[in-house]
Amino acid sequence: MYSSVNLLRSLTRAHKTIQVVARNYSVPAKQASVTSTFVGALRKIVGDQNVSTSDAVREQHGHDESHHASSLPDVVVFAESVEQVSQVAKFCNDNRVPLIPFGSGTGLEGGVNALEGGVALNMNKMNKIVELNSQDFDCTVQPGVMRIALNTFLRDTGLWFPIDPGADASICGMCATSASGTNAVRYGTMRENVLNLQVVLPDGRVFDTAGKGRRTKKTSAGYNLTNLFVGSEGTLGIITQATIRLYGIPEKTIAAVCHFNSVQDAVDTVVQILQCGIPMAKLEFLDDTAINAFNKYSKYNMTVANSLFLEFHGPAQGLEDQFDAVKELVEANNGFGLQVASDVDERTRLWKARHEMVYACTALVPGSRPYSTDVCVPISNLPEVIIKTKEMISEAGVQGPIVGHVGDGNFHVFFPIDREDKETLNKVTDISKRMALLGLSLNGTCTGEHGIGLGKRELLIKELGEHGVEVMKQVKQAFDPNGIMNPGKVFV
Ligand SMILES: Cc1cc2c(cc1C)N(C[C@H](O)[C@H](O)[C@H](O)COP(=O)(O)OP(=O)(O)OC[C@H]1O[C@@H](n3cnc4c(N)ncnc43)[C@H](O)[C@@H]1O)c1[nH]c(=O)[nH]c(=O)c1N2
Ligand SMILES: CC(=O)C(=O)O
Ligand SMILES: [Mn+2]
Predict the structure, then answer these.
(1) How many CB atoms lie within 10 A of CB 378?
(2) Is 285 in the same domain as 404?
(3) Å from CA of 89 to ligand 2 middle
(4) I want to staple 116 with a disulfide (CB 3.0 to 4.6 A). Which of 30, 213, 291, 467 is the partner?
(5) pLDDT tens for residues 199-252?
(6) Which reaction does it catalyse (predicted)?
(7) Domain tally, the chain
(8) Is residue 464 assigned to a domain?
(9) Can you state the angle between helices 288-298 and 344-355, rounded to 10 degrees?
(10) Other C-beta atoms within 10 Å of 317: how many?
């Protein structure tokens, strides 16, 4: 094992070399194929039971939940320890074989698709909670720990981990995509909630991004290597352990839903709630089309209008006051139909439309998968980008419910896509690109939380500019000089 200091030194050395070649740098292509001898050697490292070349297992690992077409790995390896991960990585690196970390395959940008074949490295068997420090509000987990299992484990401690992508994802997959979800407006995203990561580099070195055992809330010790790996989408190394922040389970939760005739009124309400400093836990938006899709899917009868879904977390004393203040703002902005719930079953019923939205959207077109856009802008620009997006959807004559983590300025259109329907696919691809460009022109990003993966590689160049992407490629070169880590992702 190498210390972080050694790693930093070697990266600095690598950087000196890169400066010479950076302008012509491109991610090297796969240089070797997976042979039966190669598979045999993998079996020796991880054991026969942890290697599969069966079609069914490869198919399972060749795609995520997105609309992107499957690309199968040649072989799937199930790791049981960091030592095994290190040996597998080094072996792939020595043989120039692509290596694709696989969390739970819930990504929405084709992150796990094995574009050049190679080895899919499934982390599910490494699923232990390594350490819990309840007084310090942190815990350390192996990569295969799932967020719902973690919260089930934590329940009796009075703590929880609030980052909540709609799917039950692996914690290290969430690190790798910089995931967030409905609670980000209050608790932040993975970027704000990861304290340390253990990482295996392609050459087999193992290091801790903040130093072994470190788990402080703050540090100004050099470069932020932890956040370099948050959002790295399996292109720099394999995350084998994460130390994350925890929070006290709120004493009381209140949920509410209300409706508006215009997107502008809904967003104005959100901005005013935030300006008043009301510490909302969730501030979500569903447009009229989304509510309609939900009513059809779940046989509900919700008011079909632009709607806000709200949640308040806090001590019982004072939470009602927060709700009353929000109620006043809703009414001042022409909101109507305000419903409220504090009992857990009633809250779940009230928020059902939000929680089932991806499935309600795909139910609009049988056999479809979600083509999800993920634009995020400064909140004051949100009404413009949502209204123009609705116009694009209506002009193209496609189905496109809109859902927004509106408190963060982040929103999605979930286009239900049957991949065989090329005409709709082309229209949706066009809208998606125009939306992202519009978001970028309004100081936004083409992805608030799903990542670049396969679908947004061109947009990354538009977002960061040529030099920004060039610097990112230099970083990639320093960690993964042979380009074996998840090739074809993030960069064109
Ligand atoms: C219904 C529904 C709803 C949502 C979402 C999905 C679905 C299906 N998502 C997206 C998704 O849940 C999110 O991207 C997860 O963070 C991915 O975690 P997996 O474990 O599934 O990673 P998955 O296996 O899909 O991998 C994703 C990427 O991370 C890499 N990776 C995985 N494990 C790694 C490891 N240990 N080390 C290095 N790299 C690794 C992979 O190589 C790949 O590039 C989401 N997201 C969100 O942010 N907010 C949301 O609201 C939602 N909502
Ligand atoms: C899919 C997703 O990101 C959401 O439901 O918010
Ligand atoms: Mn989302």
Answers:
(1) 10
(2) yes
(3) 32
(4) 30
(5) 999 999 999 999 999 999 999 999 999 999 999 999 999 999 999 999 999 999
(6) (R)-lactate + 2 Fe(III)-[cytochrome c] = 2 Fe(II)-[cytochrome c] + pyruvate + 2 H(+)
(7) 3
(8) no
(9) 110
(10) 9
Q: Does one domain contain both 96 and 218?
A: no
Index of the ligand 1 atom closest to the CA of residue 176: 29
Centroid of ligand 2 to alpha carbon of 492 (angstroms) = 25
B/e letters for 58-80, b = 16+ CB within 10 Å, e = fewer, are: bebbbbbbbbbeebbbbbbbbbe
Which domain covers residue 42, as residue numbers? 4-124+469-479
Neighbours of 310 (CB within 10 A): 27
**pLDDT tens track for 346-401:** 999 999 999 999 999 999 999 899 999 999 999 999 999 999 999 999 999 999 99
Type of residue at 457: R
| CB distance 66 to ligand 2 below 6 Å | no
Does residue 486 register a pLDDT over 50?
yes
The CATH code of the domain that includes 235 is 3.30.465.10
Mutation to probe ligand 2, out of 285, 414, 447 (largest number of atoms < 8 A from CB): 414
pTM of the full predicted structure? 0.94
Q: Could you read off the pLDDT of 301-328 as tens digits, one per residue?
A: 999 999 999 999 999 999 999 999 999 9
ipTM: 0.99
Distance CA 386, CA 276 (A): 24
- What letter represents residue 321's amino acid? D
Helix axes 36-46, 82-95, angle to 10 degrees: 160
E-assigned strand segments in 154-295 = 159-160, 194-200, 206-208, 238-245, 247-248, 252-260, 282-286
- Dist CA 207 CA 225 (whole Å): 10
CB 472 within 8 A of CB 192: no
Question: Rounded to whole angstroms, how far apart are CA atoms 290 and 306?
Answer: 9
What percent of the chain lies above the pLDDT cut of 90? Answer: 93
